[in-house]
């Protein structure tokens, strides 16, 4: 999917909501556990109930890898279901990969070619030769960890090197990489006060913003400092939406929570 197609979907739906599909078998409704593939059935119900309210889905791959080959198959079925039934929805493999040379190329092939995701999250710590293999794929997007929403972000990301925070070095350096136009960035909603400085460095790039909802991030603050002329934001909510209900009406409850966010986004737009 191209950036232009993503922006068109945002304008059409009046939404820049991304729903995180982080499936924990200990949290999903118990009646699903009797089914052959409870992970996929949970995702399918959430997708069927919310696809008109969001522009992106983001499965965190750890929640699938934890269940071995069965979990990976559930992930494969989930992404196929989205691509076949809702091809205009942007898909994000939240895998946080990052390695050098051929290894990165193989990671990219796994998510972009085999599973047909539109994008994948990547860690920048190993530098250019760990990220450029992902950037080589046309109309695919690499979402670089820049300033994350967790408390440990302050351990390294905001520390200063040559009087400039590390996350700013990441942003500036990444712009020089080959096919940098395929880059997006992760910036946590709990770091909204940093968005003004971030936009001075990458004014046009899309930002994937986790942390609205269960982590306490403020949607209005994020939009005030982070939105650009193309919207430029994907606001992710995972637990706050998918676990809104825990009975046979769980998908309807999820849709209610998604609609609350979408309605706020519609007003902002």
From TrEMBL:
One of its GO terms (biological process) is 'de novo' pyrimidine nucleobase biosynthetic process. This is Orotidine 5'-phosphate decarboxylase. InterPro entries: Aldolase_TIM (IPR013785), OMPdecase_type-2 (IPR011995), OMPdeCOase_dom (IPR001754), RibuloseP-bd_barrel (IPR011060). Pathway: Pyrimidine metabolism; UMP biosynthesis via de novo pathway; UMP from orotate: step 2/2. It catalyses: orotidine 5'-phosphate + H(+) = UMP + CO2. Residues 16-254 form the Orotidine 5'-phosphate decarboxylase domain. It comes from Tenacibaculum jejuense. The lineage of its organism: Bacteria, Pseudomonadati, Bacteroidota, Flavobacteriia, Flavobacteriales. Keywords: Decarboxylase, Lyase, Pyrimidine biosynthesis. Belongs to the OMP decarboxylase family. Type 2 subfamily. It is an enzyme of class 4 (lyase). One of its GO terms (molecular function) is orotidine-5'-phosphate decarboxylase activity. It holds the Pfam family OMPdecase. The keyword Flavoprotein does not apply. Its EC number is 4.1.1.23. It comes from the Bacteria. The active site is at 96 (proton donor).
């Amino acid at each position: 999917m191209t950036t232009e197609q993503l922006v068109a979907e945002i304008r059409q739906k009046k939404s820049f909501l991304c729903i995180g599909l982080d499936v924990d078998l200990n949290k999903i409704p118990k009646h699903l556990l009797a089914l052959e593939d409870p992970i996929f059935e949970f995702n399918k119900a959430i997708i069927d109930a919310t696809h008109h309210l969001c522009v992106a889905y983001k499965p965190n791959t750890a929640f699938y890898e934890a269940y071995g080959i069965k979990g990976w198959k559930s992930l494969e079925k989930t992404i196929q279901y989205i691509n076949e039934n809702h091809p205009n929805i942007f898909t994000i493999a939240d895998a946080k990969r990052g390695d050098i040379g051929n290894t990165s190329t193989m990671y990219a092939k796994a998510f972009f070619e085999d599973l047909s995701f539109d994008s994948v999250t990547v860690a920048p710590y190993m530098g250019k030769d760990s990220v450029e293999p992902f950037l080589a794929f046309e109309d695919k997007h690499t979402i670089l960890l820049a300033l994350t929403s967790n408390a440990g972000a302050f351990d390294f990301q905001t520390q200063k090197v040559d009087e400039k925070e590390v996350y700013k070095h990441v942003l500036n350096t990444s712009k020089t990489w080959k096919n940098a136009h395929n880059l997006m960035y992760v910036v946590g909603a709990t770091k909204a006060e940093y968005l003004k400085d971030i936009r001075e460095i990458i004014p046009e790039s899309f930002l994937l913003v986790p942390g609205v909802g269960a982590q306490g991030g403020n949607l209005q603050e994020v939009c005030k400092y982070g939105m650009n002329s193309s919207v430029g934001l994907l606001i992710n909510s995972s637990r706050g939406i998918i676990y809104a209900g825990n009975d046979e009406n769980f998908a309807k409850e999820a849709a209610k929570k998604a609609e609350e966010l979408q309605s706020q986004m519609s007003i902002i737009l």
